[in-house]
Design a protein that fits this description.
Blueprint: H1 10-13, H2 20-44, H3 49-63, H4 66-94, H5 101-108, H6 112-121, H7 126-158, H8 169-196, H9 198-220, H10 234-253, H11 255-300, H12 303-308, H13 315-319, H14 321-326, H15 338-341
Helix pairs in contact: 3-11, 4-7, 4-11, 7-8, 8-9, 9-10, 10-11
């Protein structure tokens, strides 16, 4: 038996890799090169505003498991929507003597299979109405509590606080109120579109998004964070308002005819896929909004601190201890961010509360 030639190995005798092995090696090499280039680029341009904020947002979102947590919130939003619709359909049955199915469908802007279900709800028996309302209320309470706990956990993650999933009755009630308010505003805009046209309805979305921003600030004030300043919540409120308003505009101004045909073509499966996709986008935007709030506040402070530090307005925090406490600023109107540096970092199993 002949020995292997000096300076050679069995791997070298087999020749260069081919096929899948070569593709994997090429991909790994270029991935390493890309990562090195990205690290060098970030290091070279770390003082640039856009690069600095982008890197902070990316790292905080990754640290908070944004995609996983966003999916958890989306699933809970869907679970909340189901009993809410059951409650609305049951409640509509009690109004059958005053309204018709056409009135409800026109106000809500629904058609296809959902319109047929509403028509059946208005003609259901008295016992069926009571069962739908009762089960809907129980489902709203249960799913609202689950959704609130997920939002509390997400806020702790994004603000780097000790993880908690406890949700008070106030938080649960606030979330239920916001969802009901969104549904009400959706019906109002749809009525405007039906009576005054798409142009006026399009302009009305400006006011609708302002309402959504204020509503989300109200919900965010109930969630844990490192500062009591409501101004720190404005960037995230703008993101959530733009997301909901944009999706609502597309749904009411573009998709009604598309969804009607899709419902006839794909049935309930197609409608469910569209609905889950809508909730995923909303859930992901909620997580990103919380990440944005934390990053902007830690990097620049809040908008309230900026306004209260102006030459004339700075008199207010000097004269009022309540203003200093409410907006979390010092006597000069500057944001007190010291609490943010003392927040507890999340543990390795920090996403457990959102599962």
């Amino acid at each position: 038996m002949e020995d292997d030639a000096p300076g050679t190995t069995p791997d070298e005798e087999e020749g260069p890799p081919s096929g899948a092995a070569a593709l994997i090696a090429w991909t790994k090499t270029h991935a390493d090169e890309g990562q090195t280039w990205a690290n060098d680029f970030l290091e070279e341009h770390k003082e640039h505003f856009a690069v600095d904020i982008g890197e902070r947002l990316y790292r905080r979102d990754k640290e908070s498991a944004g995609t996983i947590v966003g999916s958890a919130i989306a699933f809970r939003l869907f679970l909340f929507f189901v009993p809410l619709m059951l409650f609305v359909v049951g409640l509509a049955g009690f109004l059958a003597r005053w309204i018709t199915a056409k009135d409800v469908n026109d106000a809500g802007g629904v058609s296809g299979g959902l319109a047929e279900q509403i028509n059946n709800a208005l003609s259901q028996s008295g016992k069926g109405r009571w069962v739908a309302v009762f089960l809907g209320l129980i489902g709203i309470a249960w799913s609202g509590r689950s959704l609130s706990k997920a939002l509390v956990t997400t806020s702790c993650l994004t603000w780097r606080m000790a993880i908690s999933s406890k949700a008070s009755v106030k938080v649960i009630g606030g979330i239920v109120g916001v969802v009901a308010g969104i549904a009400l505003m959706s019906m109002i805009v749809n009525r405007i579109r039906g009576h005054l046209g798409i142009g006026v309805a399009g302009l009305s979305f400006i006011g609708v998004m302002a309402f959504y921003a204020v509503a989300w600030v109200g919900v965010s004030l109930m969630l844990p964070r490192v500062t009591s300043d409501p101004g720190a919540l404005l960037p995230g409120a703008a993101i959530v308002a733009l997301t909901i308003g944009g999706m609502q505009a597309v749904s009411q101004l573009y998709l009604p005819d598309k969804l009607s045909h899709a419902s006839d073509l794909y049935g309930a499966m197609g409608t469910t896929i569209v609905t889950l996709g809508w909730f995923f986008i909303l859930g992901r935007s909620i997580v990103f909004a919380m990440v944005m709030n934390a990053v902007i506040y830690e990097r620049f402070g809040s908008i309230s601190g900026l306004l209260l530090s102006l030459p004339v307005v700075r008199i207010l925090p000097r004269k009022s201890a309540w203003i200093r406490k409410f907006f979390d600023v010092d006597s000069d109107g500057k944001s007190d961010k010291s609490s943010g540096t003392q927040a507890t970092a999340p543990s390795s199993d920090s996403t457990e509360g959102a599962k």
